[in-house]
Amino acid sequence: MYIVTANEMYGIDRYTTEEIGMDGKMLMENAGRAISERIESNIKNTDVITVFAGSGNNGGDGYVIARTLLNRGYQITVIQVVPDEKITGDARYYKNLFINCGGSISITGDPVEIDEALNQTDIVIDAILGIGVKGELREPIKTIVDTINDSPVRVISADIPSGLPADEGAAAFDSVQADYTIIVGYPKMSTFLQHTAPFYGEWETVDIGFPESAQTSLTRSVWTDRQFKNKMPDRKKDSHKGDHGRGLIIGGSEEMPGSIVMTVRAALRAGAGLVTAGSVKQAIPVIASQCIEATNLKLKEFDGVISGDQSIPYQNYDAIALGMGLGRHESTRSIVINAVRQVDGPLILDADGLYHIQHDLELFKGRTAPAVITPHPGEMAMLTGVSVQEILREPFAYSIEFARMYQAFVVLKGSFTIVTAPNGHQSVNTTGNQGLAKGGSGDVLTGIILAMTMQHEDLFDALRNACFVHGKAADLLVSNSHSVYDLMATDVVEGIGKVYRTFSAET
C-alpha cells in the first residue's frame, strides 16, 4: 500500500483521466459508491444521516454518497456549506442527480442552523474539503468544523477529515475530528504523523480503479502482513548455525548491563545463528547468566565503561550492533568512531552510539558497507540539529535528507516507525502499541534488526521485517496476555516467537 502526497495524488488523478482515458465522472462515481459501501457496514438502517458537502471533488463525492444511500433506503439529507455558484463541473452533475432522485438539500453556513441539524442527526458524513487545504480554515468553514467537533454525533470523513493537511510540515491547522475515515486510493502522509494521525480516527482505503501503472513513481509505502510473509526467508532443513549469521553486539557498562542483555536475547530469539556480546568485565556475568546461548568477548574498560583504546576482530562477524548501554563517557567515543571506519559489513548504531557519532557524521560517506542508525525523535533532532517538534512535523523529509546525505539507512522510531533507504525509498511500519513506550524497547528492536540483517539478502527488507516483528510481538502480547501498562521489553523478546508461530500457521 503506497503513501502519497497531495501532489502525487493529483498526478495519479491526471494520469488516470488524461493518459488512461477514464472519465472524471467515473472516478467520482466509483469513489462515492466505494465509500458508501464502507459506510453501510458501519451504520444502522435507522440512523439519520447528514452529509456536509463543500465544493470541488470532495463535495462531489458527498453527493454521490448521498444519492447512493438515499436509493438504498436511508434517511439522508445534505447540508451544502458553500454558495451554489461554487458547485461546478462533476460536482454539479452529481448534485443534480441527487435532487432528481428526490434528495433534500439545505444551503447554509449558519452555525445555529447547523447545530439544530446536528441535534437531529446520528451520523455525519464529512465531505466538505479535500486534500488541497493548507493552513488554518477561513470562516464560515472554521465555525462549521468547530460545530461538528462539538457535537456528540459520529463523524465519517470521505478521503480525509476536512481541514487536515495531506502532507507533512503543517503546524497550524483546523480539522474535523473524524471517528472513521474512508481514504480514496492511497493513504496520505498525514495518516502517519503523530500530530495529525488522531484526526483520522479509524481508517481504511478503498480502490476506485486507479491503474497500477500510476504507481510507478511512488517511493513510500506501508509494510503489511503479506509483505512480511513474502520477504521472510525460509529456513532450509539442512541449514546450520553459520547460515544464519554470526553477529557481534557491543555495549553495556558497569551501570547499564541490562541494555545489551535485551539486545542479545532479541537477536537470538529473532533467529541469529551465533551472537557474541562484547562488554566490560563487570557486565559479562550478567550477560552470561541471562543469555547462556551467546558467547562473550571481554573488552578493555576504563572506570566501568568500554575503553576505545583496543582492537576488536570485526572481520570475524557478519554484522555489528553498537551502542546499547555503552554510556557517554568520552573514553568510549573512539570505539564508535573506529567501528564506523573499520567495520566492512553492516553496522547498526543505536542509543549511545548515536550520541558519540553526532559530530562525525561525514565518516558515513567513506563507508563501502551499509550503516544503519536507529534514532528516536530526540536522537534524530540531535543528529540533524533541529528541534524534536520539527522532526515530528516532517519525519519523512528529515529521514530522507539524512539517508541521502550520509548514504545510511535510517530507522526513525515512533508510533509510526519510518524506514528510509539511501536511494530515497521509505516504508512505514504500523504494528506496535503504546506498551512499547518503555525503556528497553529500542534495545530489543536493535537485536531483531541485527538478526534480520544477517538473514535477508536485501537490507531494506530486513529492516522493514525487523520493525514489523518488533511491533507485532507487542500487539500479540497485548491482545492475549498483557496490557499496554504492564508490557515490558523483556516480554517483547519472548513475544517474537509468537509472531513466527502466528504467520507459520497461516501459511
UniProtKB/TrEMBL annotation:
Gene3D superfamilies the record matches: 3.40.1190.20, YjeF N-terminal domain
Note accompanying the cofactor annotation: Binds 1 potassium ion per subunit.
Binding-site residues for K(+), renumbered to this chain: 58, 126, 162
EC nos: 4.2.1.136, 5.1.99.6
Domain YjeF C-terminal positions: 224-503
Disordered: annotated segments: 229-249
Reaction(s) catalysed (UniProt annotation): (6R)-NADHX = (6S)-NADHX; (6S)-NADPHX + ADP = AMP + phosphate + NADPH + H(+); (6S)-NADHX + ADP = AMP + phosphate + NADH + H(+); (6R)-NADPHX = (6S)-NADPHX
Record-linked Pfam families: Carb_kinase (PF01256), YjeF_N (PF03853)
Skewed-composition ranges (Basic and acidic residues): 229-246
Oligomer and partners: Homotetramer.
Family the entry assigns: In the N-terminal section; belongs to the NnrE/AIBP family. Belongs to the NnrE/AIBP family.
HAMAP family hit by this protein: NADHX_dehydratase (MF_01965), NADHX_epimerase (MF_01966)
Protein name: Bifunctional NAD(P)H-hydrate repair enzyme
